[in-house]
Specification:
The chain is 68% helix and 0% strand. It has 15 helices and no strands. The chain is mainly alpha-helical. It has helices at residues 18-27, 39-74, 78-105, 111-121, 123-136, 141-166, 170-178, 189-195, 202-231, 245-276, 283-309, 321-347, 355-366, 384-387, 403-417.
Length: 423
């Protein structure tokens, strides 16, 4: 496929008869693809085999892992006990996440939006597997955690651009923000003293993006600095003091994370109407999932480090207090990722980007039914200028801003209908 010619199909059947429409759905991998190779059936077969294999592994794991963890606990082996318990949750988490990722890839209707969703969905299996490995390979825990932290920064930046794509792109979003209530410009006094008001429009969008992306930069730099200090034995996790690098690194990261969260909340309150109408993208669930995985897990680890430094977390068996604190963090992440995997299936579901979901939402918003060729019942082609509404709801990413590409495809598709159908 040529990315320059991509478009977004929503809710039209291109004037086909009922039999032709059914046959088209069976012989094309997606509406964006011009080929008639039965790749959708092949993907379905691969998905079924993967599901069957996963079920066999799941059943075996559900029997073996609890038995092994009980055996290890009876022999006072905390490392193996935690490893097997965490493994049980990993075995349940990874297939759930991968299945939703596959569903997005096989329903690739809005690539400029869904590519960010796939990046976000990969976060759960990466967190889960990484924490599981850290429980066993304790000597390499720091380097494994660094990989997770770098991907975490990548996901945060992807989430920002995902929201911008949902809202029609930067230029459309700037126009939308200019119409907003000036109350969104104001801040609490201490933030106002540092940054002043953010004028709605370009300035507001720039500050919100910069406020979130600064955490990406600082997180990456902090990971590199800690890796260097760890290599020269100058960095000790959880050790506070005026001469301890951990104190300053954790303080900077806390402040950076707090400001990034503030900017995300600020952006959400300014755009929540557009994120809920004409299509309800369920923004609250998406925000909570991102904040929960990225921010909550980091503060959870920080709290465990505090408990260990004050002697509340002590030695267990052959594990010293630092290993116990790190093991608790990894075990908790493995358990929590199962909940986030389930939450992702609802908040970042592939169904939100299918033609039926988008078409029904746009039909409800516009107030007139869509015709077979993407026109409304009056014959007027849906365009952003005609149906964006008084609030300037962006239509980019739903097909309206790519009228020329869609019309070209419709012509090509009608020509293909004249060719004999594959047996």
């Amino acid at each position: 496929e040529n990315d320059k010619d991509e478009f977004y199909y929503f809710g039209s059947d291109n004037g086909l008869s009922e039999s032709q429409r059914k046959q088209t759905q069976q012989t094309t991998c997606c509406w964006k693809c011009k080929s008639r190779f039965k790749c959708s059936r092949k993907m379905f077969t691969v998905s079924s085999l993967l599901l069957l294999t996963t079920m066999i592994v799941l059943v075996g794991s559900l029997i073996a892992l609890p038995t092994l963890s009980a055996f290890a606990a009876a022999h006072h082996k905390p490392k193996l006990t935690s490893y097997y318990i965490a493994g049980l949750f990993v075995i349940l988490t990874v297939p759930l996440s991968l299945h939703e990722i596959i569903m997005h890839l096989t329903n690739w209707y809005m690539p400029t939006v869904q590519k960010y969703v796939v990046r976000i969905l990969f976060m759960v299996p990466i967190y889960s597997v990484q924490s599981w490995f850290s429980l066993y390979f304790q000597n390499a825990t720091f380097y494994i955690d660094t990989v997770r932290e770098l991907y975490e920064a990548f996901v945060i930046s992807s989430f920002v651009y995902y929201l911008v794509a949902l809202l029609g792109g930067e230029e459309t979003l700037k126009i939308t923000l200019r119409r907003k209530d000036p109350k969104h410009e104001r801040h609490p006094w201490f933030i106002h003293w540092l940054f002043g008001n953010w004028t709605m429009g370009h300035v507001f969008l720039l500050w919100c993006k910069a406020g979130v992306l600064q955490y990406v930069v600082i997180k990456t730099i902090a990971s590199i600095v800690v890796m260097i200090l760890k290599g020269v034995h100058k960095y000790e996790e959880g050790k506070f003091g005026w001469k301890e690098p951990f104190t300053y690194v954790s303080t900077v990261l806390n402040l950076s994370m707090a400001f990034a969260m503030y900017c995300l909340v600020k952006f959400f309150y300014a755009t929540k109407e557009e994120l809920r109408s004409p299509i309800n993208w369920r923004p609250i669930g998406k925000f909570l999932c991102i904040k929960g995985i990225v921010f909550f897990t980091w503060w959870q680890g920080f709290a465990l480090s505090l408990l260990e430094s004050y002697g509340i977390i002590t030695n267990i068996g052959n594990w010293d207090s630092k290993l116990v604190a790190g093991g608790l963090q990894d075990l908790l992440i493995c358990v929590e990722m199962l909940g986030f995997a389930v939450a992702h299936r609802y908040t970042f579901t592939h169904k939100e980007y299918t033609p039926d979901y988008v078409g029904d939402a746009m039909e409800t918003f516009v107030g007139v039914p869509l015709g077979e060729d993407g026109n409304d019942s009056n014959g007027d082609y849906m365009s952003q200028s005609d149906h964006s509404g008084s609030r300037g709801v962006p239509m980019q990413g739903l097909g309206s801003s790519r009228q020329r590409q869609e019309q070209q495809f419709l012509q090509q598709h009608h020509q293909q209908q004249q060719q004999p159908w594959p047996k």
